[in-house]
Amino acid sequence: MTAIQALPRDQQTMEQIVEQMLDEARRAGASSAEAAASNDLGLSVNVRLGEVETLEHHKDQGVAITVYFGQRKGTASTSDLRPEALREAVQAACRIARYTAQDNCAGLADPALMASDWPDLDLDHPWDLSVEQAIELAQQCESVAREHDARIINSEGASTNTLRGMAVYGNSHGFVGAYTATRHSLSCSVVAADDKGMQRDYWYSVARDAGGLQSPEFVGKEAARRAVRRLGGRRLSTRQCPAVYSPEMARSLIGHFVGAVRGGALYRKASFLVDALGQSVFPDFVRIHEQPHLLGALGSVPFDSEGVATRDRDLVTDGVLQGYVLDSYSARKLDMITTGNAGGVHNLSIVPGEQGPQELLRTMGTGLLVTELIGHGINMVTGDYSRGAAGFWVENGEIQYPVEEITVAGNLKNLFKGIQAVGNDVNTDSNIRTGSLLLEQVTVAGE
């Protein structure tokens, strides 16, 4: 393997480091302990106007130890993996634990929930990529974008990134698990101009396997096309209208739903979906489910960050909320059982419908196509939603002109219940996988 492919330490060594820390914690008198180690290597190249702007080699390693004395908890971490440094980190965690308050919900996940056997999820695809090749890919991507249209006048740059990392987790239940995963990406951002002003836009591609990336020509051309089509943007008058959220923007709406059913928000009563389990939250055609074991997917993991086995499950069936997103601590706070989501959701998908993006616009007829969102005006307690936006005004199912400097607003409860269709244009470049969403009504604040 080249230097970019071969990790600094092998899996056996990293597992031994985790086991050493757990042994140290046991000797120090901890009633239980858990340790997580990481071992990453990567390369990032950014070019702008054909010249290399930044070139970074990433080489990171570290380990964190959490000890419990009864239900008093202490945590410490170190990037120094020498035996004496590991011992000092354990001792520091123990000192902290002796001074913390007891928390009846603190502690390891239930031993019965630990992952015991898991499939190879096809996550590790090292990219045999030299620095020169990485630079060439980014330059090629940017060059295609700049040459696509005479109205492309500047570039914010193009980048090539590759990262390979190993995660190891162990605890005093006797569990030790490890997996190695890769993540590669290409991206480009350019500026277009005409006599009415300038616009920027971007495109990117992400994959576990470099063979699954879109070509640099496609990424560059798409970035340029998206920048040019935004030229001549207008403001809208304030109104209420239906809206289609493109997949990249729809993902954020589903992300707000995840935030509202996350354990931390629920036990703090800081969510508009408190006590919503078993209630209708979406229209009855909506199904949202987790698939943690999809081969090669960006959100796939064999176990969560507490060692709990991950599994397929529905969060929403027929529009009804079936479950929350819980780790062990929040589950105990709610008198429930962890859902294997310490560290987040894993390949959360909303089942697509049959319509493509153009068909969704025709179904909408007249309304707003949202392709960019700005800011974070979300009140998770009430569900009130307000974000800056840009996109396109649509009439008779056809895009008429770009729009900018507007705000889209509503209440998330109403927006979720008002989903009329899910597009088949599913974007898989994220942990949340969704197509375009057609919403019955949003409030547009403009002129």
Summary?
Helices cover 23% and strands 37% of the residues. It has nine helices and 17 strands.
Shape: globular
Q: Beta fraction of the residues?
A: 35-45%
CATH architecture descriptor of the largest domain: 2-Layer Sandwich
Structural class: alpha+beta
Distance between the termini: 59 Å
CATH topology of the largest domain: PmbA/TldD fold
**Regions with pLDDT < 50 over 5+ consecutive residues?**
none
Query: Mean pLDDT score, rounded?
Result: 96
Q: What number of structural domains do the residues give?
A: 2
**Largest sheet: spatial strand order:** 3-2-1-4-5-6
Question: According to CATH, what is the class of the largest domain?
Answer: Alpha Beta
Radius of gyration: 24 Å
Number of strands: 17
Describe the protein's architecture and organization:
The protein is built from nine helices and 17 strands. It has 447 residues and is an alpha+beta fold. The protein has two domains: 11-228, 2-Layer Sandwich (PmbA/TldD fold); 233-447, no CATH class. The strands form three sheets. A six-stranded antiparallel beta sheet has the order 3-2-1-4-5-6. The chain has a five-stranded mixed barrel with strand order 7-12-13-14-17. The protein has a five-stranded mixed beta sheet with strand order 10-9-8-11-16, covered by helices on one side. Helix 1 (11-27) packs across helix 2. It starts with 10 loop residues before the first helix and ends with a strand.
